[in-house]
Amino acid sequence: MIADELQQQNIIFGYQGSKVCPLKLDQIIHFYTSDHYVMAGNDDNTYRVKQRIYQLVKMLPTKFIQISSGEIVNFEDVDHLEIVKNGTIKLVFNDHHFTFVSRRYVPKIKERLGL
Amino acid sequence: MNKVIKKSFFGFCIGVTIGMVFSLFFSKLYGISYVPSTPAFINHWGGLTNAVLVSVILWGVIGIFWTLGAYIYKITAWSELKQTVVHFFVSYIGFTILALLCGWFPLHWIPYYTIIFVITYVINWFVSYNINKKNINEINQALKQQRE
Question: Is the pLDDT of residue B28 over 60?
Answer without folding.
Answer: yes
